[in-house]
Write a structure and sequence with these properties.
Blueprint: H1 4-22, H2 26-33, H3 37-59, H4 73-83, H5 92-112, H6 116-133, H7 141-151, H8 160-183, H9 216-225, H10 234-253, H11 258-261, H12 275-284, E1 289-293, E2 299-304, H13 305-310, H14 320-328, E3 354-355, H15 363-368, E4 374-378, E5 384-389, H16 390-403
Parallel strand pairs: 3-4
Antiparallel strand pairs: 1-2, 4-5
Length: 413
């Protein structure tokens, strides 16, 4: 006699498999739930604004009251352009070519194939094939292709349909999508190519994070050799791969946070600290950087040896020490000068900071690809609590390796 517990477990297993099959299971929800609710609302509003603007613009060029001013495919395109703007299917060439090509094919099939069923089938099939050839696959374009075929029995559409409303809709939607994505949603559109070379040191070597493991060229080649069409580009795959690496690294390293490895006894200065005092602190404590904080101990910038040397007006006819001393020397109050007097005038702002609860894996891209050597650490109130250097991270990794059992060693019983 079958066990009721087994039957119940089998039922739950079937339900889980069914949810995963239709895409509403835990794995299906995860990719969508990563987008914050406020961001989803902004995306929906952006799509509404785009459709409204396209209609208003198209109405200005309408010459016939019964002529359509909007093709239905713009609704589906709005979802791609705003919700999935990084998708290869949402890029400008796919959006433009994926509308104009199918619309032209639809007009041709509507005029030459009298049977509705055959015309519709031929339109979609030929449109998809041609979009593949020209690499402008855009799913909503299938709807634009069917409009002339469906309308042929009532009001045949000529080739001017490709220019209006399709062409005008496409141009208006594309311009609005670029503006809203960049300046309101703060998303790069069109998607930017993956940067392979070191952006910090300006040479042709790959950045440190890309010198080992999978490279963008590898992902590009793999996509080219993949037999099925994937709605993802190298940039998304590279980002996903990096995230998976960080997750796996955290699992192997355990919960080692910035607070565990940072230096907390910091020498800080304020905006109004004099240049000579800051220079003296750098030399006395033998450090290369000093954080600049406000009265609430929140970091507002950093000042380094480089900041001093860049502004010291080094000349060949004076010694290095004389140039630095001239830069540090206070200007007489009776002398008019544009020379900086306090660190706030030479400090670097826009500082990259880590939280004390961040895993040390988050430090690796900052220290390697961004070329940073010191990373301020802040707490939940955004107050400065420590500083992590490259040496701190190397020591942490070295000590972690020492704590692991040697290969082949057995733990004591």
């Amino acid at each position: 006699m079958p066990d009721k517990t087994q039957n119940r477990a089998g039922g739950w297993s079937f339900l889980l498999r069914f949810e995963q099959f239709i895409g509403i299971g835990p794995h299906g929800r995860q990719s969508l739930s990563a987008t914050p609710l406020a961001e989803r609302l902004k995306i929906g509003i952006a799509a509404s604004i785009a459709i409204l603007a396209v209609i208003l613009i198209s109405q200005q060029f309408s010459s016939t009251p019964h002529w359509p001013v909007l093709v239905a495919s713009m609704g589906a395109s709005a979802i791609l352009l705003f919700a999935l703007s990084n998708s290869p299917l949402a890029q400008p060439w796919c959006f433009v070519g994926g509308h104009l090509v199918p619309a032209t094919i639809g007009v041709v099939c509507a005029q030459w194939v009298p049977d509705l069923a055959l015309a519709a089938a031929a339109t979609v099939g030929v449109s998809l094939f041609v979009m593949y050839i020209f690499e402008c696959v855009h799913p909503p374009g299938g709807a634009a292709a069917l409009v002339p075929v469906i309308a042929a029995s009532d009001q045949p559409l000529g080739y001017d349909f490709v220019l209006y409303p399709v062409g005008l809709n496409v141009l208006a939607m594309l311009g609005i999508a670029i503006a809203l994505n960049r300046y309101w949603l703060r998303k790069p559109y069109p998607a930017r190519p993956v940067t392979e070379h070191d952006p910090v040191h300006r040479h042709n070597d790959l950045s440190p994070m890309k010198r080992l493991g999978i490279r963008p060229d590898d992902l590009h080649q793999a996509l080219g050799e993949f037999s099925s069409f994937l709605d993802v580009n190298e940039q998304d795959l590279n980002q996903l791969y990096s995230m998976a690496q960080n997750i796996a690294y955290k699992r192997r390293m355990g919960e080692v946070t910035c607070a565990d490895i940072m230096s907390s006894d910091l020498i800080t200065i304020e905006y109004g600290t004099g240049l000579e005092e800051a220079w003296g602190l750098l030399r006395y404590h033998k450090v290369k950087i000093l954080p600049v904080v406000d009265r609430a101990h929140r970091i507002i910038g950093v000042v380094s040896l480089v900041d001093f040397l860049q502004r010291a007006n080094l000349n060949t006819y004076r010694t290095f020490a004389e140039d630095v001393q001239a830069f540090l020397r206070k200007t007489s109050p009776f002398t008019r000068s544009d020379k900086p007097e306090v660190v706030g005038q030479i400090m670097a702002t826009g500082v990259f900071a880590a939280r004390d609860t961040d895993h040390i894996a988050a430090l690796v891209p900052l220290l390697s690809d961004r070329g940073l050597h010191h990373i301020p650490v802040i707490n939940h109130e955004r107050r400065l609590v420590g500083m992590v250097t490259q040496s701190d991270l190397i020591a942490a990794l070295y000590n972690h390796d020492l704590s692991r059992p040697a290969y082949g060693a057995t733990s004591p019983v």
